[in-house]
Design brief:
The chain contains 1 helix and 59 strands. The protein is mainly β. The strands form 9 sheets. The protein has a 14-stranded parallel beta sheet, covered by helices on one side. A 14-stranded mixed beta sheet has the order 14-17-23-27-31-35-38-41-44-49-52-55-58-59, with no helix packed on it. Strands 15-20-24-28-32-36-39-42-47-50-53-56 form a 12-stranded parallel beta sheet, covered by helices on one side.
């Protein structure tokens, strides 16, 4: 079985009702190495601190993304005795999954040293350790010193990293194909239907390589102090890759005096005894007394869901209060298909009316999820919540950080950090209305960072605003699958790795149609656009896909910035099997800035139309509009038409990006244009 010349039809998996499955990612060796050489600083005692946001100058992202209280520093800009990993975006590599697309690799005895840009008493280290030979990870602590003293150990592990193979992936690096009856790019064939059967090297498609750990330093250090991260001599890890350091000044623990303290109901802050029942008792008493529940500093062992309704749960701060559990195997599968349970805060099921008036804030949820089983309910926060809020949580090592199954309404998700998830970061699934996702920071999700999925019932009037999503290893940073009156604004997304991109809207996964409006406003993407494994092409930093039905809502893209796009900045595409049935229309782009594309500004592979006004582009690597339409190449031109509303300017290697000869529907199709690496983005 060979690929069609434009994009092969692919096996389209139903998106799981529990995690959101997207077919697997870019093929090893078919990605592209785009990025300038990584900055390198020789070891010294007086190097300046280099602060970045999404791996670039913060001035280029001003006003966009989550408003956070930490500062990011990339390891490749710090002093080191290790080796800077060459910048690269080829999937299945340490570079591709690194923030800024580079990192520093240490062998035992080597270090990377960061200069604190401001006073700090806490750090987060993003790192990668190798897997064990047979999977399952290893544990190998990293040494942390400040100014050459105050040595501490960071409990680094790869037990939550390293997935392999085809969806839904495996922890076994030696496993053969999970789906030999699927078409794969590596051989351009269906292995089970090919004679002789192709040999697929193992480990096959390694990914999800990084993890992060947080550490309180025990005292406040000053700006200019040196934080050294070292792989100790004699470590059982042959290497460690250090990606970045976040540093911050954490406030003292919050104390809630007028509350039901879980310690009074028997909870154990040492984590030795299970505290789930004690917390349940505290919740019940708090509801009776109309008081909040207080979770004081400590580690509380919780190995199942805590179901809450009509209650406020307040922690001492996510650095101090931790709900931590191990994944538990159920004696028999649950009615929803779960075969495991684990730590999580859940609302009641929407079929039971859901939960209301729930307010969660100021604690961490540390899970124990190491494999992707879409039927499992092992999310950090789940169920249904109306008239509620989720604020200031740190959610780590669960399947999905926050997965909510509606219908439900009036939920605010603000100021949370979600990291190292096996699947999505935040997903509004089925009929979530009048709700806000704002100022959340997400890194290293294993599927969409933030997603709205209007399955069966449309999500409506949702605002996704001022969030940062970095390094989703599969799928998109922010994705909208159907729904009514949606706003995606002021977000910062960077470094999607495979099978998706920065911003996305798609009539996919059985979602209800787009209706009313969909507005993308004042967002910034950085190094977005991945190699789509099944279609064998590069995606846009923002891309629109037609699969299940037409997309003809009022879609306006205004004020977005697309920086250093790996392939094209904008893609409009239909799945090959439906390209003659459905269209994509009413796209309007205005006041957009594009700095650097590996190929075109617009790649059109669908029937439909788009308009452009005041769209400025520079450092464009190919023809401005790569217009293939539906690949019929008729004498009347492409089935996709472009309207120039004026004010469009700039271009690249082939002249003006929006030239008169391209309008309205000139066929300019280059199925897989060569990639021209642009220079690093700069101020306008």
């Amino acid at each position: 079985m060979t690929a069609a010349p434009a994009f092969p039809s692919r096996s389209v998996l139903p998106r799981s009702a529990r995690a959101g499955a997207v077919v697997v990612a870019s093929v090893l060796g078919l990605g592209v190495a785009l990025c300038g050489p990584a900055a390198y600083a020789a070891p010294s005692s007086g190097g300046a601190a280099v602060v970045t946001r999404a791996g670039i100058d913060p001035a280029l992202t001003a006003g966009r993304g989550a408003r956070v209280d930490f500062l990011e520093q990339e390891a490749e800009n710090a002093a080191t005795t290790g080796s800077v990993i060459a910048a690269d975006r080829t999937a299945y590599t340490l570079a591709a999954e690194a923030s800024g697309r580079s990192a520093v690799k240490l062998t035992p005895g080597q270090y990377v040293e960061f200069t604190l840009p401001k006073d700090a008493n806490a750090i987060t280290v993003r790192y990668s350790l190798p897997d064990a030979a047979n999977g399952g990870g290893i544990t190998a602590p990293l040494d942390v010193t400040v100014n050459g003293k105050d040595r501490r150990q960071l409990s680094a592990t790869s037990q939550y990293s390293w997935l392999y193979n085809q969806y839904p992936f495996t922890n076994d690096p030696k496993a053969g194909l999970l789906h030999p009856d699927w078409w794969i790019t590596e051989c351009g064939c269906v292995p089970a239907a090919t004679t002789p059967a192709p040999t697929v090297a193992t480990p096959f498609r390694p990914g999800h390589m990084y993890d992060e750990q947080r550490m309180l330093l025990g005292r406040t250090y000053k700006a200019g102090d040196k934080v050294r991260i070292a792989l100790p001599a004699g470590s059982k890890a042959p290497w460690a890759a250090i990606d970045l350091l976040d540093s911050q000044l954490v406030a003292a623990p919050h104390v809630e005096l007028k509350a039901v303290n879980v310690l009074a109901l028997g909870a154990d802050p040492t984590g030795h005894r299970d505290s789930a029942d004690a917390i349940d008792r505290a919740v019940k008493l708090a509801r009776t007394l109309r008081l909040p529940v207080y979770l004081p500093p400590g580690v509380f062992q919780v190995n199942r869901h805590l179901v809450v309704d009509d209650v406020t749960v307040i922690g001492a701060g996510s650095w101090y209060t931790v709900l931590k559990g191990t994944q538990q195997t159920l004696s028999a599968p649950a009615p929803d298909g779960s075969v495991h349970t684990g730590v999580g805060i859940y609302g009641k099921d929407a079929a039971q009316g859901g939960s209301r008036n729930v307010h969660l804030s100021g604690f961490a949820i540390e899970g124990d999820v190491r494999e992707r089983i879409d039927t499992d309910q092992v999310n950090g926060v789940g169920g249904a919540f109306s008239d509620s809020s989720i604020e200031g949580l740190y959610i780590h090592h669960t399947k999905v950080g926050i997965w909510l199954d509606g219908p439900m309404k009036n939920l605010k998700i603000t100021g949370n950090q979600i990291a190292d998830q096996i699947a999505d970061g935040i997903n509004f699934h089925t009929g979530v209305a009048d709700s806000v996702i704002r100022d959340n920071f997400l890194r290293n999700t294993g599927d969409d960072g933030i997603a709205l999925w209007s399955e069966k019932t449309a999500d409506a009037r949702t605002v996704i605003d001022h969030n940062t999503v970095q390094s989703p290893t599969l799928a998109n940073a922010i994705a909208v699958y159907g729904g009514t009156d949606t706003t995606v604004s002021n977000n910062l997304v960077a470094d999607p790795v495979r099978e998706g991109s920065g911003l996305h809207a798609g009539s996919r996964f059985g979602a209800e149609p787009f209706a009313g409006y969909l507005h993308f406003t004042d967002n910034t993407t950085v190094r977005a656009g991945t190699y789509e494994l099944n279609w064998n092409i590069g995606l846009g930093a923002i891309w629109f896909e037609v699969l299940d039905r037409d997309i003809d809502a009022d879609i306006k893209v205004t004020g977005d910035h697309y920086l250093d796009s790996t392939y094209n900045a904008i893609m409009a595409v239909a799945d090959w099997g439906v390209k003659d049935q459905y269209k994509l229309s009413n796209l309007a782009f205005k006041d957009v800035k594009i700095d650097g594309t590996g190929t075109s500004v617009l790649s059109a592979r669908v029937a439909g139309s788009a308009s452009f006004q005041n769209v400025t582009a520079r450092n464009v690597g190919a023809v401005g509009i790569n217009n293939c339409g539906t690949f019929h190449f008729t004498p009347t031109g492409s089935e996709f038409s472009v309207t120039d509303l004026g004010g469009n300017s700039g271009g690249g290697t082939t002249g003006d990006w929006l030239a008169s000869w391209e309008l309205p529907n000139t066929i300019t199709c280059d199925d897989r244009p060569p990639v021209v690496a642009p220079p690093a983005p700069s101020k306008w």
